[in-house]
Design goal:
The chain is about 35% helix and about 25% strand. With about 425 residues, it is an alpha/beta fold. It folds into three domains: about 120 residues, NAD(P)-binding Rossmann-like Domain (Rossmann fold), CATH 3.40.50.720; about 170 residues, Dihydrodipicolinate Reductase, domain 2 (2-Layer Sandwich), CATH 3.30.360; about 80 residues, 2-Layer Sandwich (Alpha-Beta Plaits). The strands form two sheets. Strands 7, 8, 9, 10, 11, 12, 13, 14, 15, 16, 17 and 18 form a twelve-stranded mixed beta sheet that branches. The longest helix is centred in the N-terminal third of the chain and has 21 residues. The chain is elongated. It binds L-homoserine. The site of L-homoserine (HSE) has 7 residues, from helix 6.
Length: about 425
């Protein structure tokens, strides 16, 4: 008896697309055995089909016309790997409207157009799968949405940008300046030529939006939460916080339930050295989640790269072929959707570094301002120096509200004895 044939179209013959082709070339027997059907990567579309990507693909399968996929009734699954908003959004919507399932790694698009894309997929009874969009090759989203569906989550904490994590790891291991590590990472091809998206936290924010939908049933647009990158971190901060305070510095995406509200935020965070997340180094990603039934769980692995990301893409194809009719709801019911806490009301411990003249009365002035805003200090350290020189002072506060800290810092910064604006890093709560 002939096996049913499933045809797949791939839009985007870049690095990840080449990885997908490689997996279909190498592991087709395994894939077909798994799904019990014949699987054919029928068409690969890209504007550039002449550059050699180092993978084997017959020239009849290549096309520059996206309609060779979108309008082909024999193709039932479309993989979108061009990234960005347009034309990816139009291609995905057209594929869904034409009754095709879609597999994508496009976190930017999902984070921005989640409601539109999932509504169109639901209306047309086809699936949209996006395991590769967060954490690359790590099995993360499907387990979160399905295997862990019995849980109410207290919090999800993610190191989900490999570039930022690589830079912070190198700064910490080698005591280097941010700009020097970034330059080296760019030379090695680890960081993009324009790394803004990764180092300013936007990539982490988009991935956190997806995790927040799946973990808490709440969609939050990026403009609605605090996003801060890692560019102001210095080797001095890393050295002091690791040696004296026993923390590691990580760019963290955090969503946590506080009362009836959700805190959603992305910023550099000091994590205790014995926390599981502290061991997530280099380009690796780690997502730590706390469910009310399962307790703490951490997913760890390669969050980017050709083959790990392609692995998640092909995994999604296999899942769709095995369960094309599966109805998926994302996260807890929308009735449980939560309001987002205003960042000014978020409460945290803070590390503060400032540079002040070493003169009598300076600390008194600083602590006067802190006490005016009800901020209590856990520790203060000052480096030795010649009198009247400016010196770094390192402080750790007890818990305080963001609003009080920000108001206090803006007053401290205006003192004539303060020679550089305060640097502030939030500390992960126990
Ligand atoms: N640029 C991302 C990172 C990989 O550095 O982790 C793609 O999500």
């Amino acid at each position: 008896m002939n096996k049913t044939l499933v045809n797949i179209g791939l839009i985007g013959f870049g690095t990840i697309g080449s990885g997908v082709i490689e997996i279909f070339n190498q592991n087709i027997d395994l894939i077909e055995k798994k799904v019990g059907k014949e699987v054919n990567l029928k068409k690969v579309v890209d504007l550039d089909i002449s550059t050699d990507r180092g993978v084997e693909i017959s020239s009849e399968k290549l096309s520059t016309d996206v309609n060779d996929i979108l309008e082909d009734p024999e193709i039932s699954i479309v993989i979108e790997l061009i990234g960005g908003y347009e034309p990816a959004r139009s291609f995905i919507l057209k594929a869904l409207e034409n009754g095709k399932h879609v597999v994508t790694a496009n976190k930017a698009l999902l984070a921005k157009h989640w409601e539109e894309i999932t509504a169109v997929s639901e209306k047309n009874n086809v699936r949209i799968s996006f395991e590769a969009s967060v954490g690359g090759g790590i099995p993360l989203l499907q387990p979160l949405n399905e295997s862990l569906a019995a849980n109410n989550f207290e919090g999800i904490y993610g190191i989900i940008n490999g570039t930022a994590n690589y830079i912070l790891t190198k700064m910490s291991e080698e005591g280097l300046e941010f700009d020097d590590v970034l330059k080296e990472a760019q030379e090695k091809g680890y960081a993009e030529q324009d790394p803004t998206f990764d180092i300013e936290g936007h990539d982490t924010a988009q991935k956190l939006i997806i995790l927040t939908i799946l973990g808490f049933g709440t969609y939050v647009a990026q403009e609605k939460f605090h996003v801060e990158g890692i560019t102001k971190i210095t080797p001095q901060d890393i050295e002091f916080t690791s040696k004296k305070l026993k923390y590691v510095t990580k760019l963290l995406g955090i969503t946590r339930k506080v009362g009836d509200e959700l805190e959603v935020r992305v910023h550099p965070t000091l994590i205790p050295q014995d926390h599981l997340l502290a061991s997530v180094n280099d380009v690796f990603n780690g997502v730590y989640m706390i469910g009310d039934s399962v307790g703490p769980v951490m997913m760890y692995g390669q969050g980017a790269g050709m083959m790990p990301t392609a692995s998640a893409i092909v995994g999604d194809c296999i899942d769709i072929i095995s369960n094309p009719e599966k109805e998926i709801t994302y996260g807890p019911p929308q009735s449980q959707e939560k309001a987002i806490k205003n960042m000014a009301e978020v409460v945290s411990k803070y590390y503060i570094r400032l540079k002040a003249l070493d003169q009598p009365g300076v600390l008194h002035k600083i602590s006067g301002i802190l006490s005016k805003y009800h901020i209590s200090l856990e520790s203060v350290n000052q480096e030795k120096n010649e009198e009247n020189q400016s010196i770094p002072i390192f402080m750790v506060t007890h818990k305080a509200s963001e609003k009080n800290i920000m108001d206090a810092i803006s007053q401290i910064d205006q003192l004539p004895e303060i020679k550089a604006p305060c640097m502030l890093i939030r500390i992960l709560e126990d």
